[in-house]
């Protein structure tokens, strides 16, 4: 059995880690370098750093910040936000990122996934999908930090991303984000059934049982969370001990 991964997510705006609910009401949390180093010491398996306003503001993610983060941690980390061409990804990987996360730019130009996978390898490419469950019972893919709905739907887009060469899918349910009511397990289970690449679940973690459920019901390969770790509500080692007691394999 492949061990499940626990991944703190650090949303970055203006060089600071921030957190909101349902993608709004953003508040500052702290310094990304310090927080990242702390999570590495606390037993996180990986980290995800997302520059959440880069696409919306039409700018690139700061490679200098990525370099500083890389110097202070010893676990894999993924960087996303504002990556729209090979040069962007090359700069971030050269700065020390282990993987790059593609979201809005790939939705607008899906060939970007093919290009990234061909140039760097699928293992370096994470397709991040922010989707909202609408009143018609469909998961609508959004771009620009959830601000703009698109014609794409979650399951068909996730499958296309896999076929184009993405090595992982990072699915954030906008309906669940920041609510602490649990992950979108039904959608996650369907993704896991339909795809052959790992699925990272994001949006909704509020207590340890939610991680148990996302790994057993949602069939996710990794659980990503932000505020519960940022505010010390759940310690990573306590979470891993709980999951082991629930017979779930963790690192």
Keywords:
251 residues, alpha/beta, 8-stranded parallel beta barrel
Q: How would the blueprint of this fold be written?
A:
Layout: E1 5-13, E2 16-21, E3 24-30, H1 32-42, E4 47-51, H2 54-57, H3 63-72, E5 77-80, H4 86-95, E6 99-102, H5 104-108, H6 111-120, E7 125-133, E8 139-143, E9 148-153, H7 154-164, E10 168-173, H8 185-194, E11 199-202, H9 208-216, E12 222-225, H10 227-230, H11 236-245
Parallel strand pairs: 1-4, 1-12, 4-5, 5-6, 6-7, 7-10, 10-11, 11-12
Antiparallel strand pairs: 1-2, 2-3, 7-8, 8-9
Structure report:
The protein is of the alpha/beta class. The chain is 37% helix and 27% strand. The protein contains eleven helices and twelve strands. It has helices spanning 32-42, 54-57, 63-72, 86-95, 104-108, 111-120, 154-164, 185-194, 208-216, 227-230, 236-245; strands at residues 5-13, 16-21, 24-30, 47-51, 77-80, 99-102, 125-133, 139-143, 148-153, 168-173, 199-202, 222-225. The protein has an eight-stranded parallel beta barrel, surrounded by six helices. It starts with a strand and ends in a 6-residue tail after the last helix. The model has no long low-confidence stretch (mean pLDDT 92).
């Amino acid at each position: 059995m492949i061990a499940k991964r626990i991944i703190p997510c650090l949303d970055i705006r203006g060089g600071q880690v921030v957190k909101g609910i349902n993608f709004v009401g953003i508040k500052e949390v702290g310094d990304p370098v310090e927080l990242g180093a702390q999570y590495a010491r606390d037993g996180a398996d990986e980290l995800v750093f997302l520059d959440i306003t880069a696409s919306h503001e039409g700018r690139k993610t700061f490679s200098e910040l990525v370099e500083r983060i890389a110097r202070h941690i010893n676990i894999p980390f993924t960087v996303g936000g504002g990556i729209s061409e090979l040069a962007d990804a090359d700069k971030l990987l050269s700065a020390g990122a282990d993987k790059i996360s593609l979201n809005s730019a790939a939705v607008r130009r899906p060939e970007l996934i093919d290009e990234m996978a061909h140039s760097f390898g699928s293992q370096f490419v994470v397709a991040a999908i922010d989707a909202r469950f609408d009143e018609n019972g469909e998961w609508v893919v959004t771009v620009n930090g959830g601000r703009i709905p698109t014609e794409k739907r979650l399951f068909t887009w996730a499958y296309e991303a896999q076929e184009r060469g993405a090595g992982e899918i990072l699915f954030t349910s906008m309906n669940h984000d920041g609510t602490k009511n649990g992950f979108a397990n039904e959608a996650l289970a369907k993704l896991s059934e339909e795809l052959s690449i790992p699925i990272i679940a994001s949006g909704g973690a509020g207590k340890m049982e939610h991680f148990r459920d996302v790994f057993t019901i949602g069939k996710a390969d990794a659980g990503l969370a932000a505020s519960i770790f940022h505010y010390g509500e759940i310690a990573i080692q306590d979470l891993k001990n709980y999951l082991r007691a629930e017979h779930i394999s963790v690192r």
